[in-house]
Write a structure and sequence with these properties.
nine-stranded mixed β-sheet; alpha+beta
Length: 192
Amino acid sequence: MRQTGWCSSGVLRFELARWPSAALWFRVVTTVQRLNAGEGDRWRRIRLRALQEAQRAFGTTFGEASAWPSSRWEQQVADFATFVAVAGSSDIGVARGAVHPTRRVVRELISMWVAPSARRQAVGSSLIDAVADWARSEGATALVLDIMEDNYPAIALYASRGFELFTGDSLAERAPGEIRMVKSIASIGDFD
């Protein structure tokens, strides 16, 4: 994967190469965009797709979320750093960053989802990197997430991005069946 950098529009652009066989090669260009005020409806469409496709992965159900008023979706965009992966004109993934409720230097990676057709193409890695960059810019030194203990593909992705199993109790409660993973995001300069 080659990160091509921030465009003038504030969009992080990644070029992803995938070789499913020696005879076939193609390049998928994916951008990661941060949602802004006024994009609550876009967030709603993405989230409802995620809730339909991955029903066990989230604490909210499709039925609950589809009944929320538009003001709630707008407020979520304001309250959380929401990053969307886009291929062409299609939203193909999302991850959000949240301030940890009790630990000033910890941020949470929440609501991660990648469309099935875009999985295993480094889209998830790009979204994780976007949230980690945001968290680092906010002064955080650790990124934490909770995940269902039987979601092995996602656990493998997070482990490949430097997350480790966290067995302590000091970072808040977990839902039944979830495990917690944590990643240090401190830059070298943080230890000077």
